[in-house]
């Protein structure tokens, strides 16, 4: 059998991805499953920074940041396509966010997750639990 040629994953942070590609990834995430194309487009327009992982022209990983670029940043919607998981892509997305030149001054990054172990390896801690949340919909998920 010929060896499988595995294409290299590349990362981009300048342009937001196409919303329809992102919706395909959102199908995988319990909190993002029901999102609509129009809302995703609007969300991308108002997001400060996106980090994408691409395999060829296919979006295989995503993460986004809302921030004031000085004091605080929150990280949202970190998702890696199932077939591409456990290859270091999620780690690379978060690392590239933390190292991003436009975020160099930010003193505190915050996120919510049901995968604390994944983020602890990247230096995140849950020791200081000072967060509170207000939800418009009682069925909202907090990742
Ligand atoms: C959480 C998520 C983003 C992680 O993405 P990922 O690309 O699989 O992450 P990584 O490959 O960097 O790390 C995942 C695991 O694979 C391991 N890994 C990384 N590279 C590896 C490799 N080459 N070979 C084997 N294992 C590897 C990591 O050590 C890590 O182990 P852990 O599960 O014990 O933490 C992804 O699983 C996902 O999209 N899940 C669904 C949505 C979700 O839950 N998102 C989190 C929201 S806050």
Describe this structure as you would to a colleague:
This protein has 143 residues and is an alpha+beta fold. The chain has a single domain, classed as Gcn5-related N-acetyltransferase (GNAT) (Aminopeptidase), CATH 3.40.630.30. Helix content is 22%, strand content 23%. The chain contains 4 helices and 5 strands, in the order βααβββαβα. The protein has helices spanning 19-26, 37-45, 89-98, 116-120, and strands at residues 9-12, 49-55, 58-67, 72-80, 108-110. A 5-stranded mixed sheet has the order 1-2-3-4-5. A hairpin with a 2-residue loop joins β2 and β3 (58-67). α1 crosses α2. It starts with 8 loop residues before the first strand and ends in a 23-residue tail after the last helix. Residues 28-29, 78-80, 85-91, 113, 115, 117-118, 121, 143 line the site of coenzyme A. Coenzyme A is lined by residues 28-29, 78-80, 85-91, 113, 115, 117-118, 121, 143.
Could you provide a short overview of the structure?
The protein is of the alpha+beta class and 143 residues long. Helix content is 22%, strand content 23%. It is globular, with a radius of gyration of 16 Å.
From the structure above, extract its key features.
Aminopeptidase; binds coenzyme A; five-stranded mixed β-sheet; 143 residues; alpha+beta; single chain; 4 helices
Q: What's the CATH architecture?
A: 3-Layer(aba) Sandwich
CATH T-level topology: Aminopeptidase
The main sheet comes to:
5 strands, mixed
- Counting DSSP H or I runs of 4 or more residues, the number of helices is 4
Strand order of the largest sheet: 1-2-3-4-5
- Tell me the fraction of residues in β-strands, as a range: 15-25%
């Amino acid at each position: 059998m010929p060896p499988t040629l595995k294409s290299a994953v590349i990362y981009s942070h300048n342009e937001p991805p196409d919303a329809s590609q992102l919706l395909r990834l959102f199908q995988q995430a319990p909190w993002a499953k029901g999102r609509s194309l129009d809302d995703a487009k609007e969300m991308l327009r108002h997001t400060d920074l996106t980090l994408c992982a691409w395999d060829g022209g296919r979006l295989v990983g995503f993460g986004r940041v809302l921030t004031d670029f000085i004091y605080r940043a929150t990280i949202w919607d970190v998702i890696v396509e199932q077939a591409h998981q456990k290859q270091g892509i999620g780690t690379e997305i978060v690392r590239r966010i933390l190292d991003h030149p436009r975020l160099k001054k930010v003193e505190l990054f915050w996120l919510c997750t049901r995968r604390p172990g994944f983020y602890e390896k990247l230096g995140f801690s849950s020791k200081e639990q000072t967060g509170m949340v207000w939800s418009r919909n009682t069925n909202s998920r907090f990742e």
